[in-house]
Design a protein that fits this description.
The chain is an alpha+beta fold. It is 38% helix and 19% strand. Bound molecules: zinc ion (ZN). The site of zinc ion (ZN) has 7 residues, from helix 1.
Length: 463
Amino acid sequence: MSKKQCIYCGTTERLTESDIIPDALTNARIINDCVCQDLHNSKMTEKFESIIAKRLAFMTNELDIKSSKSKSYANYSASIEIEGNKYEAKKLKGNDDFLKKGKVLWNKEHTQAFGDIDTIRAIAKSNGINESKVRMINSNDIEFIKTLKIDLEVFFSVEMYRQIAKIAFEWYCAQNKVSRKYEDFNEIINYIVDGVGENIVSIVSDIDINNTFNEYCNSGSHCLVGYVSNEGDVNVFVDMFGIIVYNVKICNNILDFCPNNCLLQKLNLDTTRQSFRLHDYNDLPIDMISTFSAIDDRFPQPIINGVKVYVPTMSKDVSGHIFFMKLLRSLSNGFLKECYYTEKIGNTLINNIEELLQGSVVHRKALKRFVTEKINFSKGIALSSTGTDKKSIFIYYLLFILGKQNPDKMNKEILEKIIFDNFGNYQMIITDKLCEEIKDTILKDDNYRSIIIIGSKKVLDWQ
Ligand SMILES: [Zn+2]
């Protein structure tokens, strides 16, 4: 077998594992090991990966995605409203960073400050401001409204398009075990490496396709789909965070050395994933049938009118197959690509981002982060009866239930069961009413502080 080459330049020297989706944008790692270290891994990071990671920090931070290479979450800017006054907060890392000792927030005009009382007094003194102008408030009793600065343009930037092309190309090659450079990919390679060429990446504005992706992809997850168009060219859809779908043209026709052209991989925020790799869409039904396992002997077999009824159990999830079939229907009608920003795409994107950031996606990393940032094991729990931060109260409640159950070992199934048993669903909107109810349940229990501590310890021990 010939030596592996870089899929961009053909070198056999210093090949490395390239993160197909930049490490800073996902909790689920997928790699291509046929990329050279210097020119086509590190250089790409400089050219656009780090720019994109920085500009998307407002989202990745909220979604509790952290690059494995860095110790902390990416920082971002926000405006914090406290009792009707707005303050500018820059370089936030943790959710409550602005409450930290020594930290001071200023309003835009730089006429009013909020922060640690000793620091504020010192500032007042050095500016000759009367002590009476300094007011002390208990941070547990006030509400903070955090407004994120959403960077929409990043989704339409050249850097983003090249980033998306890189994700699609490296993924497609990995799915087909491509381990050398081929001329057939020159168009997309030139676009990724030098930004030369056009119509490689477009934003999908087709409403049916967007809806189909929305139904299948959970908030915050990434989804990649490889398919062959009516015209015979090979493409990959890239759904980023479940909020925007790009189409990437990989090459003009099916290539002998790339036999798999019906491809799917979904990477969820909680690091779980779903995937299949098939020759073409004709294989979908066969693959689906093969996922129904033979008759399961453990299952009760009732006898109806003397006929034994067998219940086939599914050995794996087929929702991806169904999703792909729905996509095929839209694809056969031809679909709308748009290369540039339109108001329609902009509005859909804003809605999707808002929905994503307002929702609470509870997973292991998010819970661990919450406990690390908010639970003070020595001082106790700062849960205020007037607090209305729904996301926090919801997690306090999960910790409370977890502490009550006090399971031997924490795992994903236990968390899912708690959510399902208490809310009857895996997905929910935390309304004002629900928020009040769960808060009351916690505060009614005289031992809630110690119970939450027990739950928090379980989360920290969760492997
Ligand atoms: Zn290379």
